Structures are given as structure tokens and as C-alpha cells.
Amino acid sequence: MPGYRMMYAKEGPARYISHLDLLRTFGRAARRAGLPLAFTQGFNPHPKIAFAAPLGVGTSGEAEFADLELTEDLTATDVAKALSDTLPEGLRLLEVRLLPDRYPALMAMVDRASYRAEAKACASVTEEEVEKAIGEFLSTKKIWVERKNKAGGKNLYDIRPGIFAMSGKLGNGIISIEAELKTGSSGNVRFEEVLTAFEGSSRPLVQGRFVLYRSGLYAASEKEKKTLWHGR
Amino acid sequence: MDFLDQILPLVTKPARYVGGEWNAVRKNWGTVEYKVAFAFPDVYEVGMSHLGLQILYDIVNRRTDALMERVFAPWTDMEEKMRKHDLPLFTLESRRPLLDFDMVAFTLQYEMSFSNVLNMLDLAGIPRAAGQRTEGFPLVVAGGPCAYNPEPLAEFIDLFVIGEGEEAIGELLDVLVEAKRRSASRQDFLITAAQVPGVYVPSLYRVLYREDGSVSGVVPSLDGVPKKVTKRVVKDMDRAPFPDRPIVPSTEVVHDRIMIEVFRGCTRGCRFCQAGVLYRPVREKKPETVLRQAANLTRNTGYDEISLSSLSTSDYTPVREVIKSLLDKHTHQGIGVSLPSLRVDNFSVELAKEVQRVRRSSLTFAPEAGTQRLRDVINKGVREEDLYETTGAAFREGWKAVKLYFMIGLPTETDQDLDGIVRLARAVLDLGRKAGVPRGRLRVTVSVSSFVPKAHTAFQWEPQAPLAELKRKQDYLSERLKERGIVFNYHDAGLSFMEAVFARGDRRLGAVLARAVELGCKFDAWSEHFQLSRWLEAFRLAGLDPEDYAGRRYSDDDPLPWDHIETGVSRQYLAREHRRAQAGLATGDCRTESCPGCGLCEALEIEPSYAGGEQHAGL
Q1: From CA A192, how far away is CA A212, in angstroms rounded?
Q2: What are the φ and ψ backbone dihedral angles of B580, each rounded to 5 degrees?
Q3: Helix (H, G, I), strand (E, B) or coil at B586
Q4: Which of A46, B140, B461, B568 could bond to B604 as cystine, CB 3.0-4.6 Å?
Q5: Does A14 sit within 8 Å of B250, measured CB to CB?
Q6: Closest by CA position to A165, among listed A215, A121, A113, A214
């Protein structure tokens, strides 16, 4: 059955749609679009839609990926056209491509993600100070964070190896921090964890909370990041 | 950066507060004359499961001169943040504070949501007392089933709409828009609104008290204000407005599916049931109306389930043909059909079998009482044989779990009736075993709620059993329902006690409610929030005894605090039904047997309407 890879944005009110609800939301949008959805077998069939990586509730996604399976051959353009008109506010289809007959699952491909965080800078903070703080943060050999384990207890986990890059800017009173982090089943670093650890490592630089964006999702080969596009 | 972005990451289920769902309507604020905020006094997931909201939202937003936006009770974590940051209660669509609206319209689905009504007014910065809302404040309106005894909220609400909202809202908005155009004063608004049939403006009435402090009547204090306010009723369900583009929540809600109301009303005449009186007469939609609405709704919502809703869907005359047509038409799209409530008979099992081909959840039946004697008292026309036949058939058809609903504390109930519940539960369990349901999977859930006497019913004169007695009955059952395979659960009796107080309350309870909210009462329908001790403290502070309300036995000719609200069902009929209950006599169904003379058709100049002729569904 034909598979389609979609790149979409998840912004505005749609930022607050949880991962589980997002599956339902796309399923309903596809139904409204009249797309011939393929369903999973079993007791509670659900549409075959698979996401690259869960996005934290509240974080905007600027270039998210999901695969969709249909029972009839449609062109990618037709799928894009139909689905664009039926997504709720904040979900925006950016591009759709038809997948080849055999293709690795998105979940298996995704290896890293790029993020951006923005917050109002404290009055006396300069760009140099932000850069310096990030430099010091990254120079730490190990960055331990607490994570809940399945047993209900807590484990310590070193996130430093999962931080591939991190930088900061200051403009118009807004501090903007960019980072590239390990994402996926072979290891996952959450941006919130990084920011909390970073904020704990320096004097307060921002007022209020950071607003978060995931700007991209990538596969990896060797040490390079690579696009998740795999289609024709 | 939006301020909301700063607090939403800190609360549970932030999707409750952001709107933007499919089919939500955001109108141009500047060009619309009259703005209504529909306020649901519970959380988003509960409120968005309410069909009435969708119906009224559609009607108002179709008008060019008005708009309706939504607001729900914020969960306690969100409330805390809002209070901390002085963020007033806002609507989901335009995110404007409620103070910017011309009208804030609450729906009253349940007495125990009253504390949330007051709390929401507080959060909106709107004075609670209607008398303190000067010019410029929104008009605070309330409707829904609990508006049929409006007195406990009368102090806080500017006007109540009695009856079916879709029938009244158009006329009400017409006069209010017109009043706004001529810059009418608040008092002028209220007097104008009181002319619309079905509208009750409590500030235009006086409450008369007797020497002992009880209510002897509610009478107009102004000429031209109706002595009795009669409910509004939709005459033709096929022509009644029904939204074909309802809002589709982006987060899971309680009823997350297409809801099509197949009929309104119920002919069964259970004597405890308030809905059975309020929604009379029965009005069925034609099959073609239901099928047309289903086709539009599947296209416009993308849901994968159609629920045929009503007070008793297996009573819908053409139910079988409608289900068949829906399945024929929509199964290949992966869309299923569900029925929310089933009667205790074989026909219901057949229907359930039809619709649950895919999903095999448990089946629910409501015998309500454990003995035939008591079922006759409450006029629940279910025989023991029916229950055995039905559950036996269900087990043979492959169901492994059934739920049985009962009430305790019903008028005339004795321990023998409780023994009857135990006997029925065990017999049903036995049928399951005999049908070969594996022991580990066989489950009979016995769910027990406490009887609450409601206004406008045949049992409106009856007292509720004392709290200690209700608890004793729960313990009595609990001790006897310990068998493997039986799951026994019951509702908090303290909650039913408070529900009984407000269900038959009068205007003096306003003071209690205000105290209770000050003491922190909110989300009282949620067991994790309800605290009887706080309510009892509120009563103490207000100098009233809740027992005087819940435990009161009225005599048939006593004035009742809700006498000025007219359902169309005559008092003589209710009194007759009450006497027949005491004599243990059942009364026939008005659909299949002779007219029991409730007086509604004459009073409201209306008739029951059946889609497929007069014969009974399934007979």
C-alpha cells in the first residue's frame, strides 16, 4: 500500500495537542479529506500514521515528520491538497512526498533534532555573557540530569554526549538559544532538560520561561546530519 | 510573547485552554453587535461532550448580529495560576475576558456544579450578586435541567431560560440586540427579556415566607411579568436546528464521537426521573433526518463513531432500520455505531449485537430496584424474567461483563429490597457461568446510587433517606456482594445528600452557596474535590440545616419553592402518581397503553410524534 511522508508545522493552539491526540487529530483530518486510510489489524483498528519523534506539549514544531499509509494510489500533490484544507488551526502541511515501496520507518531513521528557545533577557545581560555561559556549560565533561524510571524511582543520566551543538544570541532584549540534540530510540535528550541544566549552571540570564521550538528533525550517517526525506 | 505561553506549560492538559479546534468559529469582534460567552461549569472534556453547547453555538454563530464563544471551568492548577497572575477568566475563541461580553450564559446540568458557577463569576471579575452588577456588566443567564428549580441560584443569575434552549434563544437575542441598539438600561433589558416566553427574571419576583421560614410562594413584583414561567419546547425535531459542523476537540473528551439525538423525551414514566418530565413529550426524528445528519457529520467531523443518543435509544421506533442503514453506509469508512443506553430486554441485546460487531465492551442495564414490589413503586417496568433473559442472551452472545445500575433509599424501601439486589446480582452471575463465560473474565458490576428526590417529579414530595441510613444500606450491600466475579461500587452518599438539598432548594440557599465557595468548594461533582464537611460548615455559617431540605416530606398541597416554574405536567397527575406509588401500583407507558393524563399535551398544545407510526420499537 502506498506510503506518504509529510512535513508539517505544529504551532499556535496545535502546540498543545499531545502526541496521542495528534494521531487522532491527523486521523480525523484525513477522514474529512476523504483519503482512503489504511488501518492496523486487530481489536481496535487505527489509521496507519507514524510520527518521527514525539514533540513535547507546548513546543512548536517547525518541520515535523510523519508517514501516512493509504489503500489507493494517489499523487503526493493530491494528498497534500486534500489534507491541507482539513487540518485544525496551527497544523500546517509543508510538503508531501510519495515513499518508495520499501523504506525504513521514520522512527528508526530519526537521530537528532534542532531546537530553539526564546526568552526575555535580564536587564544587564550581554551577548558575550550568554556565549560565555554556554561555552562553560559545554566544557563540562558530564552533565547529570535526574530521570524517572519505570519503577517510580529516579536515575541519573549524563546528557552531555547527546548535545551535539549549542549556541546563543541576544537581540531586541530576547535571548535565543539554539541546540542540536540526540533524538530517537537509541538515545534521547530533551531540550527542557538541557535548558534546566544550563540555567542551573549560570546566574539568571532570562526572565520568565523559555518558549520552545523544534526547528528540524534529522537522520544521521557517520557524524553528519541528514534529511529525513527519503522519497521521490 | 503571549502571557499564556508562560503559564500553560505549568498546568495539566493545557489543550483545555487554547481553542483552535476544527469547526470552532472565530468571528470578527468589531463587527458583531451582541457577544455571548457560553459558560460550562465543569472542565473542557465534560463541557465539550455536551450536545446542547454545540446546538446553541451553531444557532448563535449563524446569526450575523451575534457571536458565541466558549469558556469552561479551569481545573484547580490553572485557577491557581490565573489568580496568582491576575489573569481573568477568558474565552477560548478570542481569549477575551468575560467582562467584554454582553451575556455570560451558563448551562446547569447538575446541582453540584453550582459552586463552579459562582467560582467562574469570581474568576471573571463579575460580581456574584445580580443586584450588584451595575450597567456595563454582562447579563448572567442560566438554562438547562437545573434551571427548573432556579431558586438556589436566583440571587446570582439575571435571567433563567426554562426549557429547550434552541426554541427560546432566537427570540431572546432578538429583543436583547434591539435593547442594546436603543442603549437600554440594565433594568430595561431585564423587563424586556421577561416578556419572552420561558424567561424567568428572579429579581422581578418576590419570595413569600411563612413564619417558620419556609417558602410559601414566589410572585411577580411588577405588572406584566408572568405569574408562571412555562418551559419552551421544540415542536418539530426534524426542523429544529442541529449543527452539522460541530466543534471537533483536538484533545480527548468524555464523549468523543458524533452525537445524533434521535428523539427527545421518554414515555416510560419512571417516578424518580426528572428528565422524563422535563423533556416531554416524546418527539422522534424521521429516519431520513438522522441519516442525512449522519452523512453530513461524518464528512464534517472525521469521527469514526456515531452515537445515537436519547434518554432510551432502544425505544426509538425505527431504531433497527436506522442502525442498519447507518452500518450499510458507513462501515466501509471504518465508522461504527453506538447506543448509549439500553433497555432491559432481548431486543436491546440484538441491537447491541448489531452495533458492537467490532468493539465488545460491557453492557449496561438499569433495573433500578431489587424487587418487583419496589420496581412497581418507582414505575420501572422491568420484570425479573426480562433481566435474566436479557443478560443470559448477552452472555451467550459473547459478552463477558455486564453492569447493573440500582438506586438505594427509594421511597418505601426495606432491607428485603436490598436483598433483592443481592439476589439479582448473584442470579446474573450464575447465568454467566452457565453460559460458559470463563470464571476469570466473567464480571457483574453492581453500581448503586442514592435516590435524590427531584423537583417536578412524582417523588418531589418525598424525603431523601437520612445520610446515616444511606451509608448503612451501602454497607449492608457491600457485606453481601463480596463474591468473586461481582464488583460492587457506590456513589458518595454525602454528595447525594447535598444534591438532594439543592434539587429541592429555595432562595435561602444562595447564602449557603456563597459561603461554600468562600470555604473553597468547587468541582463538587468530582469525588476528589467534594468535601461534605465544608458544605456543612457553610450551612452552619448561614444558619440553615441541610436536613430541613433533603429530609423534608411535603404534603400534596404544600406550596413548593418551584411552583412558579411550569413544565406542562400537571400537579394533579404527579400527586396521583405519588399516591399510586405508595399503593405499589404501576402506570402504563403512554406510547403503548392509554394516556395516563399528565396534562402536558393540552397545556403546551403539542403532541408526541413518532417517526414510524405508533407501534412500539421492537414489538
Answers
A1: 9
A2: -65, -35
A3: coil
A4: B568
A5: yes
A6: A113
Q: Of the residues A75, A103, A131, which one is the last residue of a structural domain?
A: A103
Positions of chain B with pLDDT under 70: 1, 341, 346, 356-361, 613-619
Residue B287 in contact with residue B269, Cβ under 8 Å?
A: no
- In this structure, which amino acid lies at residue B537? E
Within 8 A by CB and 6+ apart from B220, the residues are B204, B205, B206, B226, B227
The 3-state secondary structure of chain A reads CCEEEEEEEECHHHHHCCHHHHHHHHHHHHHHCCCCECECCCCCCCECEEECCCCCCCCEEEEEEEEEEECCCCCHHHHHHHHHCCCCCCEEEEEEEECCCCCCCHHHHEEEEEEEEEEEECCCCCHHHHHHHHHHHHHCCCCEEEEECCCCCEEEEECHHHEEEEEEEEECCEEEEEEEEECCCCCCCCHHHHHHHHHHHCCCCEEEEEEEEEEEEEEEECCEEECCCCCC
| Domain range list for chain B | 3-230
Q: Does B355 or A58 have the greater pLDDT score?
A: A58
User: What is the number of other CB atoms lying within 10 angstroms of the CB of residue B423?
Assistant: 14
pLDDT digits (tens, 9 = 90+) for A152-182: 889 999 999 999 999 999 999 999 999 999 9
Instruction: Name the B residues in 288-307 with CB < 8 Å from any A CB.
Output: 298-304
Say if CB B317 and CB B282 are below 8 A apart.
no
Residue owning grid cell 472534556: B45
Strand order in the sheet with B66-72: B66-72, B34-40, B103-107, B139-143, B159-161, B199-200
User: Across chain A, what does the average pLDDT equal?
Assistant: 92
Residues of B whose CB is below 8 A from A89: 20-21, 24
* CA B552/CA B554 separation, integer angstroms: 6
Whether residues A85 and A158 fall in one domain:
no
ipTM, 2 dp: 0.91
Number of domains in chain A: 2
Paired strand residues for A156: A146
Q: The C-alpha cell of B132 is what?
A: 450588584
Q: What is the pLDDT of residue A200?
A: 92
Domain identity same for A157 and A114: yes
Q: How confident is the model at residue A232 (pLDDT cuts 50, 70, 90)?
A: very low
Give the residue, A148 or B24, on which the prediction is more confident.
Answer: B24
What does the block give as the cell for B78? Answer: 490553572
CB contact under 8 A, A16 and B18: yes
Please report which helix (H) or strand (E) contains residue B425, including its range. helix B415-434
Query: Would you say residue A75 lies in a domain?
Result: yes
Residue B248: Cβ within 10 Å count = 24
Backbone angles phi and psi of B283, in degrees to 5: -135, 110
Contact between A16 and B1 using a beta-carbon 8 Å cutoff = no
Contacts of A209 in chain B (CB under 8 A): 5-6, 9
The Cα–Cα gap between B347 and B355 comes to 13
- CB atoms under 10 Å from CB of B530, counted, come to 19
- How far apart CA B141 and CA B159 sit, in angstroms, is 5
Name the closest residue on chain B to residue A71, using Cα atoms: B333
Contact assessment for residue B408 and residue B448, using Cβ atoms and an 8 Å cutoff: yes
Domain that holds residue A63: 3-103
- Domain with residue A71: its CATH number is 3.30.70.580
The burial class, CB within 10 Å (0-12 / 13-18 / 19+), for A104 is: exposed
Q: What are the backbone angles phi and psi of residue B575, rounded to the nearest 5°? A: -65, -40
Name the burial class of residue A95, with classes exposed (0-12), middle (13-18) and buried (19+) by CB atoms within 10 angstroms of its CB. middle
A169 with A82, same domain: the answer is: no
Under a CB-based contact definition with an 8 Å cutoff, are residues B354 and B322 in contact? no
For chain A, the distance separating the N- and C-terminal CA atoms, rounded to the nearest angstrom, is 16
Q: Answer yes or no: is pLDDT of A222 > 70.
A: no
Residue found by looking up cell 557524524 in the block: A223
CB contact under 8 Å between B304 and A31, yes or no, is: yes
